Amino acid sequence: MSNLPVPDYDLVIVGGGISGAVIAKTVIEQAAKKKKFPRILILEAGRATALSADKYDTYVEAYHKALVKVPNSPYPASRSAPQPDVLDIRPLDNTDADPGGQGYFVQKGPMPFGSDYTRSLGGTTLHWLGTCLRMLPNDFKMRTTYNKGVDWPIDYEALKPYYERAEWDILGVAANVEHQHYPGLTGSPEEFFKSNNTTKFHEGSYHFPMAEIPSSWLDQYMAHTVDGMTISLPGKAKPEHTFKIKISNTPVARNSTPAAGYNVVGAVGNADQGQRCQGNSSCIPICPVQAKYNALKTLYELIVKYPDQLKAGEQPGTRARVTIQSQSVATNVVHTKATSTDKGKVTGLTYKKYYDDGAPPQGTPPTEYTVTARTYVLAANAIENATLLLASKAANTSDQVGRNLMDHPLLLTWGLLPENVGAYRGPGSTSGIPAFRDGAFRKDRTAFRVEIGNWGWNFPEDTPYTTVLDLVGGNEDGKAQLHGRELRKRLGEILPRQFRIAWELEQDPEGRNRVTVEDRYKDALGKHRPVIDYDLSDYMKASLPWAAEASRQLFEKLGMKNKVPHLPCEPEKPGRKKARSYETGDYTHYACDDASKVKYGGETYAVRGAGHVVGTHRMGADPTTSVVDSYQRSHDLPNLFIVGCGSMPTLGTSNPTLTMTALALRTGDEIAAKELSA
Amino acid sequence: MGNDTPTHPDPKGIFTDISVELTGFDRAELGGTGMVDTYYDTLLRMIGEREAGQLFRYAQEALDADRKEQRKDNAAFKKAVIDNPRFGPVALGLIKLWYLGRWYPLSAAYRDRFGSTADDVEHVVSGQGYREGLVWAAAGAHPMGAKPPGFGSWAEPPSPTP
Ligand SMILES: Cc1cc2nc3c(=O)[nH]c(=O)nc-3n(C[C@H](O)[C@H](O)[C@H](O)COP(=O)(O)OP(=O)(O)OC[C@H]3O[C@@H](n4cnc5c(N)ncnc54)[C@H](O)[C@@H]3O)c2cc1C
Ligand code: SF4
Questions:
Q1: Hey, which of A202, A300, A382, A411 would disulfide with A613, CB 3.0 to 4.6 Å?
Q2: Is the pLDDT of residue A343 over 50?
Q3: A-B C-beta contacts closer than 8 Å
Q4: With left for phi above 0 and alpha for psi between -120 and 50, is residue A31 left, alpha or beta?
Q5: Mutation target among B144, B147, B153, B159 for the A interface, most CBs of A within 10 A
Q6: Do residues B25 and A488 touch, judged by C-beta distance below 8 A?
């Protein structure tokens, strides 16, 4: 290894995703108030392609051309910074087998971990949906309230001001307070959101920076049909739990009509574009106009306002400076061990820079560097943070690094409604049913959130492709079963009636669900691949029959009582002997070759990953049971911050990024206050 | 659709007539996608010029017959093309191509008998082909990731599909 003389930085951040970008922005803005001007380096494993408007468009084109349209299909994969692929979620058949045939994750099972992330500048927010729900007060104190999981070291009230900043200053969230009907609150939605910032919000009456994204026609149809109905589910102690159904518009980081004083942030390098969501209906995997927040927006602001290059006449130390270095994969956190008198500390960060995709690092110019800084931040996504720490044997006195891996495993149910509801229009989801997000039942089973999908059966059945293939048929005899006007008419009758719901189950933290590293599993740069052990707890599985039963009652109310039979072992591929008849009803079924099957109470379910990768370096007050403190500072190595969804001790039913952003703002404040003053 | 259209001596014209018959979209709608030339070339790439010529000849005769007898169900076309083991599988491929913008390979049984070219593998013909897939219009929607209908359009009642 050869070291080039590299300049010192105040802060080195690993990962150019949302958490890294928020830390950099916050530190700079808070430090400026005290006339401090840090110099920051962001190391990014992937390419920086998307940061210019015209190159972003090449990702959109790649998506249109992709044969298989999965979240990562627009983003070029690299052997030097490989990324997981939801199509490759098979568990390892034989743990000694050659891992070469598997995807990026080494899946040890028994369940495959079904979520992915993106290793490209901008990170996974390039293909997230943008849902931005706050966590509920009880989500922060699961141990105290329900004797499950663990409590957080902070609570909802402490995080509230950071939620507000996340919604206004980073993500740009569109929602109406009065339409947020959450269970388990003592007061109204207005009270839940009531702000302490009375300068900005008159008498603390909070409002979002943008008005809600209009609810889809489907949502309105649902509200009309099911609002006010009661769903009853069988309990353990209590014989019956009842839930009053109300369709609620979902807060989302997607541009809408701004409130007074809010500037809508459009596409990077092309601010006029993406001022409003236009209904491209492809938020996952890519918003063509960037009406949806992605971390490129924050990163772009940084490099425009604080370029590392000083202009002629500018003196060093008079403004902050940011460098983003792409194709630079962090490989080792160099650190000293704790002694009897002193804690350890990080002394450097090693990274490999690659030029030719996948080429092993070699010769000149040197490709391995070690950079030093005052403070270090790992912001590489929960799974990558964990592999990096484990490979570096750092910050793990608690033995919790990599453990408590969580997601929102989701159960999909789908059917054909009696009426045309205009499926395949609008953002992926505009509303949900929050009724099951909290309640006494959490002592016995996990809570869940209900997401109403606007894109027909695209998620469960890869429609509209498969619907066309099914109707056209001809796999047996080579003769089209339907063609011409009849085919066109039939598609018009079926596709706009397709309906699906995702029942997103809260996963509880378990030490056995974990990321580890093994020397035999490495990528092209010689960096460890994540090895994953993953399963669902009985506490969690107990919610599967509940979700299925709630779905049954809801479908019945929607006129889809009829359970449309399917072959017991129906593959999710076109090629059935006969096209379906497509009568109104419930089409939920699971393919028997599904890698994510779960058996519970004599029934078989199949779950999907939600992309919510959480819990691998959890926060807590006790250094023996947690990796970081409530500021995401490593208990072991005080000049190291480990940030992102990995710090969350429990998951609740909110998609995690808003909470993660609030935590990152709090960490940024802490770094600006404590680290730069040294 | 095709009933009062004069016969075309040019193969692309016949190709369009066949496409109208297979998709249920009229000439103007198909022309509007800008994909006629591309798909014509795709067909030739998949089965070769000679075999395509045969398809055009049979289809033309059948369409002429249907027209002459003023048959609404276009039974002659169905018999000569859709139900014909030689052309049926090709018609199947063309329907999917027009609706989905991607080519699905001809069946193994077909290839054993009639052969196909090395290009006959599953592929997305082009980004434009994806965007112009007829399935989106048939659904009363727009392609996911393109031709956005505008802010709030999804809150309006769906337009009735034809
Ligand atoms: C399909 C999908 C939909 C989602 N929808 C939602 C949603 O609606 N709402 C919500 O709240 N969340 C959603 N999420 C989750 C959300 O995307 C993540 O929580 C969020 O992006 C995490 O941010 P991050 O900055 O921690 O990590 P990332 O966004 O993953 O960024 C990490 C960055 O670090 C880089 N990196 C990785 N390893 C290294 C290394 N060794 N060296 C240098 N750089 C490295 C990566 O290339 C990447 O740029 C979704 C996720 C998926 C997959
Ligand atoms: S619906 Fe379209 S414009 Fe709106 S956020 Fe999604 S992809 Fe972007």
A1: A382
A2: yes
A3: 186
A4: alpha
A5: B144
A6: yes
Long-range Cβ pairs for the range B10-17 (8 Å, 24+): B11/B40, B11/B52, B11/B53, B11/B56, B12/B36, B12/B37, B12/B40, B14/B56, B14/B59, B14/B60, B15/B39, B15/B40, B15/B43, B15/B56, B17/B59, B17/B60, B17/B63
All residues of chain A having their beta carbon less than 8 Å from the beta carbon of residue B145 are: 60, 63-64, 280-282, 286, 288
Are the CB atoms for A12 and A371 separated by under 8 Å? yes
DSSP lists the bridge partners of residue B43 as none
Q: Which of A499, A497, A496 is nearest to A413 (CA)?
A: A499
| CA gap A146, A536 in Å, rounded | 19
CB contacts of B30 in chain A (<8 Å) are none
SS3 of B50, please?
A: helix
**Dist CA A649 CA A574 (whole Å):** 42
Q: Name the amino acid, one letter, at A427.
A: P
3-state secondary structure of A252: strand
Question: How far apart are alpha carbons A402 and A633 in whole angstroms?
Answer: 16
Neighbours of A353 (CB within 10 A): 18
**Ligand with the closest atom to the CA of A45:** 1
CATH 3.50.50.60 fits A9-252+294-675, yes or no: yes
Strands A410-416 and A346-353 come out as unpaired
Q: Which residues lie below 8 Å from residue A594, measured CB to CB, with a gap of 6+?
A: A572, A606
- Collect all residues of chain B within an 8 Å Cβ-Cβ radius of residue A458: 144
Pocket, ligand 2, Cβ cutoff 6 A: A 254, 277-283, 287, 289, 291-292, 427; B 148
Residue A255 near residue A277, CB atoms below 8 Å: yes
SS3 B39: helix
Closest ligand 1 atom to A613 CA:
19
Over range B120-133, report the average pLDDT.
Answer: 91
- CA dist A384 and A292 (Å) reads 25
Characterize the bridge pairing of strands A448-453 and A498-505: antiparallel
In the chain, the amino acid numbered A618 is R
Nearest Cα to Cα of residue A676 among A32, A6, A25: A32
Concatenated DSSP letters of A129-192: --B-PPPPGGGGBHHHHHS-S-B-SS-HHHHHHHHHHIIIIII--B--GGG---TT-SS-HHHH
Average pLDDT (A240-262) is 95
Per-domain residue ranges of chain B:
11-143
3-state secondary structure of B140: coil
Mean pLDDT on A196-203: 96
Q: Is the pLDDT of residue A6 over 50?
A: no
Q: Which residue has the higher pLDDT, A194 or A54?
A: A194
Of A58-67, A257-266, A269-278, B103-112, the poorest mean pLDDT is in: A58-67
CA A291–ligand 2 middle distance (angstroms)? 6
pTM: 0.93
> Strand (E) positions, A459-612?
498-505, 514-516, 531-534, 585-586, 597-600, 603-608
Q: Taking CB atoms and an 8 Å limit, are A496 and B21 in contact across chains?
A: no
pLDDT at A602 over 60: yes
With cut-offs at 50, 70 and 90, classify the pLDDT of residue A87: low
* Separation between Cα atoms, residue A650 and residue A245, nearest integer Å: 26
Following DSSP, what letter does each residue of A333-362 receive, concatenated? EEEPPP-SSS---EEEEEEEE-SSTTPPP-
Per-residue pLDDT at A501: 97
User: Average pLDDT in the B101-122 region?
Assistant: 90
User: Which positions in chain B touch A217 (Cβ < 8 Å)?
Assistant: 154-158
Q: Which helix (H) or strand (E) holds B36?
A: helix B36-68
Q: What would the pLDDT profile of B9-46 be if each residue is shown by its tens digit? A: 689 999 999 999 999 999 999 999 999 999 999 999 99
Interchain pair A288, B126: CB under 8 A: no
Task: Compare all CA atoms of chain B with the CA of A473 and give the residue at the minimum distance.
Answer: B92
In sequence order, which ranges of A373-509 are alpha helices (DSSP H)?
Answer: 382-392, 458-461, 465-472, 484-494
